[in-house]
Amino acid sequence: MTDQASHPPAPAPSAASVAVSDNADIVQSFLFALADSDLDTFESLAAPDLLWQNVGLPSLRGRVRIMKLLRRSEGRMGFAVKFHSIAAEGETVLTERTDAIVFGPLRLQFWVCGRFEVHDGQITLWRDYFDLVDCLVKAPLRALAATVFPSLRPTF
């Protein structure tokens, strides 16, 4: 039996904490929309001046330019994401996740840390950090081995 008097009700969340939670939800919705090939939702969550940075690779600026690239790759490659942790403070959202880029039978899966900036319900910065060797060497080798030995195919 629990004594209700010893556990006062939690205070109602402040407007600031709700906004932080909303920002984390926006980031998850953004990446899940990409994984679901829901480019309309993805586009609606991207700010017109979105900056997409994959650290170590060239950056892309502008929703129109990014959407053009994503629409060109539609049907040729897939994307999957698994969030391990997500933290938000103010307009900044940090993620630890595993991403997978899928080309037909090849599934390139690798760990990613991301930083997102969310302003007025739209993402203005999408910056991902990952190990280039893991992404460009190890993941393709694992994916190729999995085409010969399907039991090696990476999954979440």
Automatic annotation (TrEMBL):
<dbReference type="InterPro" id="IPR013100">
    <property type="entry name" value="LEH"/>
</dbReference>
<dbReference type="InterPro" id="IPR032710">
    <property type="entry name" value="NTF2-like_dom_sf"/>
</dbReference>
<dbReference type="Pfam" id="PF07858">
    <property type="entry name" value="LEH"/>
</dbReference>
<keyword id="KW-0378">Hydrolase</keyword>
<feature type="domain" description="Limonene-1,2-epoxide hydrolase">
    <location>
        <begin position="22"/>
        <end position="137"/>
    </location>
</feature>
<dbReference type="GO" id="GO:0016787">
    <property type="term" value="F:hydrolase activity"/>
</dbReference>
<protein>
    <submittedName>
        <fullName>Limonene-1,2-epoxide hydrolase</fullName>
    </submittedName>
</protein>
